[in-house]
Write a structure and sequence with these properties.
The protein is of the alpha/beta class and about 450 residues long. About 40% of the residues lie in helices and about 20% in strands.
Length: about 450
């Protein structure tokens, strides 16, 4: 374990992965501390790794992870080495810092933390205060992609908001804002315009912005911010648009027309109309890299990369017999998209829904939508500091067929074993919950 030695000498560093992870997670007690002062201080001490990497910065309420995955898959298929920084993780902490989709090694986590830890200790004694868990991990990612394992390009997903998010020390080649939804309203504001103001904080001077945002009031904010920054906005539905959408057995097929090309017969393996929008943002990003930054991504790589892109917990069919769908719909817009896909794809099936969520979400509206879709609602607890209690979720439901259970493993096992052909199981809610489910399914 790393600490000051008994004689008041230098720092004794971390030796095991478990110690490193325990210390990183201990920072969760600090919560969210908006602002870039601590990050800027650490970046200076690390010799500005964020300036040494070609990056794309991806913000938005929903669709960040999927959009990042489509871009990564396109670039990777072309033979370009891609670093990614994402959150939260689904199966393993190391996923947050990955190269070509492969999480970095345990010993690299230890090495990175040993490089960052002395800075965190030094910051504790200053007026700007100690860094949060997310700030530590972000600093580790910058340091890794710049100094330990340099990559051709790195894709950074915003953690929360944009303006004051720790990733926002970047000056990327390109910024992407996927969508605006009413999430994290206590921190980001409770209107689309307020939230768009925070998300638009990632727009940098002269850097183009690709946007999938739909609400007029949110678009107004993004366009105004871009104009102030002399940035050009490329808007889904204007400078590029999709056409010819059909759902396939395991994904979607569509065409895309933009200012550079018109393409037909694009396919993705993730289901949902929203995934077509995410994929179109990714194709637009790849076009930009080609046109303005001398990347040479072929048509074949764009098509093959889109088709093989996979991101866990996004309308993921984890079992065919019985039919079980896993979906990290963790806010109002996510639940709306999930309910739409369930009705469209499986109209004949009865739906038993297992739901767990964080207490700071708009739970009454989310549960109200699920009540309309499900023939049975199952509310469960899971082990996370901000998780809502199953009994509290139960009390918000108007379903006439509902249960609350504190043991999600037992209830899912029981429901799974008793499913008949005309019934499907849908497990949804917080991505932290989906992460636990994924690990459990893997072990069982």
């Amino acid at each position: 374990m790393s600490h000051l030695d008994d004689k008041g000498g230098g720092l004794i560093m971390f030796t095991t992965y478990e110690e490193a992870i325990d210390w990183i997670h201990s920072r969760l007690r600090l919560g969210v501390k908006p602002g870039l002062t601590r990050m800027e201080w650490m970046m200076e001490r690390l010799n500005h790794p964020e300036r040494k990497i070609k990056t794309i910065h991806i913000g938005g309420t929903n669709g960040k992870g999927s959009t990042l995955t489509y871009i990564r898959s396109i670039l990777e298929t072309e033979g370009i080495e891609v670093g990614t920084f994402t959150s939260p993780y689904i199966e393993q902490f190391n996923e947050r810092i990955s190269i070509n989709g492969v999480p970095i090694k345990d010993e690299e986590i230890v090495q990175l933390l040993n490089d960052i830890y002395p800075l965190a200790i030094e910051l504790e004694g200053t007026e700007i205060g100690e860094p949060t868990e997310f700030e530590i991990i972000t600093a580790m990612a910058f340091h890794y992609f710049a100094h330990i394992h340099p990559v051709d390009i790195a894709l950074f997903e915003v953690g929360l908001g944009g303006r004051w998010d720790s990733t926002n020390v970047l000056h990327p080649l390109l910024s992407i804002i996927t969508s605006i939804g009413l999430d994290h309203t206590k921190i980001l504001g409770d209107t689309y315009a307020d939230i768009a103001g925070e998300k638009a904080g990632i727009i940098k001077s002269g850097t183009p912005v690709i946007s999938g945002v739909k609400q007029p009031e949110a678009l107004q904010v993004i366009n105004r911010t871009a104009k102030e920054k002399r940035s050009t906005v490329y808007q889904l539905g204007k400078q590029f648009s999709t056409f010819g959408h059909t759902s396939t057995g395991c994904g979607e097929s569509f065409g895309l027309e933009n200012i550079f090309h018109k393409r037909e017969g694009l396919e993705i393996s993730m289901a949902g109309t929203h995934q077509i929008e995410n994929a179109s943002l990714a194709v637009m990003a790849a076009e930009f890299l080609n046109q303005y930054f001398s990347f040479d991504i072929s048509e074949e790589s764009m098509k093959a990369g889109l088709k093989k892109a996979y991101w866990p917990g996004r309308f993921e069919r984890v079992s065919n017999d019985p039919l079980i769908i896993l979906d990290g719909a963790h806010n109002q817009e996510g639940i709306e998209a999930l309910c739409h896909e369930l009705e469209k794809r499986y109209p004949e099936k009865k739906k038993q829904v297992v739901f767990a969520a964080l207490a700071d979400k708009k739970l009454d509206q989310m549960i109200g939508m699920l009540d309309q879709t499900a023939n049975k609602m199952i509310f469960v607890d899971f082990d996370f500091p901000r998780a809502a209690a199953a009994k509290d979720l139960y009390s918000l439901s108007s379903s006439t067929n509902k249960i609350a259970d504190s043991d999600w493993k037992a209830v899912i096992q029981s429901e799974r074993d008793s499913l008949s052909d005309e019934v499907m199981l849908v497990i949804t809610g917080s991505l932290y919950f989906i992460s636990e489910i994924k690990q459990w399914l893997k072990d069982n």
